Amino acid sequence: MLDLMQDEVFKAFSTYALIVILKMMLMAPLTTFYRVRRGAFASEEDVAHKSGEERKKLLRTHPDVERVRRCHQNDLENVVPFVLIGFIYTLSGPQLSAAILHFRIFTGSRIFHTISYVGAFHQPCRGLSFLVGLATTVSMAYNVLSQFSNL
Predict the structure, then answer these.
(1) Secondary structure (3-state) at 7
(2) pLDDT at position 54, please?
(3) CB atoms < 10 A from the CB of 136, how many?
């Protein structure tokens, strides 16, 4: 374990994995911000202190809140596989330069994906950033699997 902590590839992976995990975690407070700002709540207990008529107005969806929620969902669908596959990729002994390139591209694509999703940029901005991140994760998985094919 100590050897792993000294490994440069593992240090790079840990850094970029933490960045995308923290970015993903920040989507929950951003959702709350949009809920409060737009007055759109999902649960009865969120508006329990309001009058009956006001509750009905506040228990609704809003396009901005749903946009942030979908972005968060997309993070969950992409960051978790990146962390799992990236960890296995790190253990496979890749070259430092190739590993850092994978980690940076994925991290940059996820940050741009969030900006383009929440900012409602026109397509293909969001779609391309999603595909770049997906291709990066698939590339790491392919590198690992190609090493296993020699077994």
Answers:
(1) coil
(2) 82
(3) 24
Q: What is the pTM of this model?
A: 0.90
Q: Are 150 and 123 in contact (CB under 8 A)?
A: no
Task: Please state whether 39 falls in left (phi above 0), alpha (psi between -120 and 50) or beta.
Answer: left
Instruction: Please report, as a single letter, which amino acid is at residue 133.
Output: G
Q: CA 25, CA 75: separation in Å to the nearest integer?
A: 9
Which ranges of the chain have pLDDT less than 70?
A: 1-2, 150-151
Compute the distance between CA of residue 17 and CA of residue 23 in angstroms, rounded to an integer. 10
- Report the C-alpha gap between 57 and 60 in whole angstroms: 7
> What residues contact residue 95 under an 8 Å CB cut-off, 6+ apart?
none
Residue whose token pair is 């991140």? 133
Tokens standing for residue 135: 């291709």
Token pair in block for residue 99: 């590993």
- For residue 129, what are its two tokens? 């950033």
